[in-house]
């Protein structure tokens, strides 16, 4: 990961204690965990992506990537539509024929349909936004983007190109990579793999 953009690391904490009472994720980690959960609903055969739009520490909308509502899912057919030779068209970049609506776009579309104002908010994405999503996020008034994984859309410097593209809009929007701490992942696994609401302590 290039050094141009800051990476979010919360201050070090002591070892996770004997009970879950000893530790809580940061707000940023909390929202990124929600984005990771949203990605479990993805129907894109290429890669799962989740997004959460937040303002004032409240979730406004969530999204994941996949076909438009009511359409068949690429995961159902176990194939990436635009990568099939029969689905490509001369003169059109194959990726432009993708059936998937990106997670960020779906989150913004959900907010628009419900009349939810996202201006001034932040978005947490499991994948850094493509150029189209990024431009719409800027236009929608999103002020911060947190992403987990850089969008390595090719093997020829695509990730570096995206980071340079983001910097054109640095006066309008802040972009950061968010690294979830191992302790946070450990506590999330404990909550997800067992009954979430068992007692923390005996007799409480």
Supply the key terms.
about 200 residues, alpha/beta, 6-stranded mixed sheet, 6 helices
Description:
The chain has 204 residues and is an alpha/beta fold. The chain contains six helices and six strands, in the order βαββααβαβαβα. The protein has helices spanning 27-39, 74-77, 103-114, 131-139, 158-167, 182-193, and strands spanning 7-8, 50-55, 58-64, 122-127, 144-149, 174-178. A six-stranded mixed sheet has the order 1-6-5-4-2-3, sandwiched between helices. α4 links the parallel β4 and β5 (144-149). The longest helix is centred in the N-terminal third of the chain and has 13 residues, at 27-39. The protein is globular and about 70 Å long. Mean pLDDT is 85; it is low at 10-19.
Shape: globular
**Which quaternary structure do these chains form?**
single chain
Measured by DSSP, the beta-strand proportion falls in 15-25%
The H/E string reads EHEEHHEHEHEH
Spans of 5+ residues with little confidence (pLDDT < 50)? 10-19
DSSP summary, beta strand count: 6
Q: What is Rg? A: 19 Å
The end-to-end span amounts to: 46 Å
Structural class: alpha/beta
Q: Mean pLDDT across all residues, rounded?
A: 85
Main sheet record: 6 strands, mixed
Spatial strand order of the main sheet: 1-6-5-4-2-3
Percent helix: 25-40%
Q: How many individual helices?
A: 6
């Amino acid at each position: 990961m290039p050094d141009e953009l800051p990476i979010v690391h919360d201050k070090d904490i002591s070892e996770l204690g004997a009970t879950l009472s000893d530790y809580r994720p940061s707000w940023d980690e909390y929202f990124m965990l929600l984005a990771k959960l949203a990605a479990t609903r993805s129907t894109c055969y290429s890669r799962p992506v989740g997004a959460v739009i937040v303002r004032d520490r409240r979730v406004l909308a969530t999204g994941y990537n996949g076909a438009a509502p009511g359409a068949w899912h690429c995961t159902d057919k176990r194939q990436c539509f635009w990568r099939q030779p029969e689905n490509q068209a001369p003169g059109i970049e194959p990726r432009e024929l993708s059936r998937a609506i990106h997670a960020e776009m779906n989150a913004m579309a959900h907010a628009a349909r419900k009349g939810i104002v996202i201006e001034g908010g932040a978005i947490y994405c499991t994948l850094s936004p493509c150029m189209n999503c990024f431009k719409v996020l800027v236009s929608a008034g999103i002020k911060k983007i947190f992403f987990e994984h850089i969008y390595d859309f090719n093997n020829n410097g695509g990730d570096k190109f995206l980071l340079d593209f983001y910097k054109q809009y640095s006066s309008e929007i802040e972009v950061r990579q968010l690294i979830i701490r191992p302790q946070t992942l450990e506590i999330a696994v404990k909550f997800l793999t067992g009954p979430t609401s068992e007692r923390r302590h005996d007799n409480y």
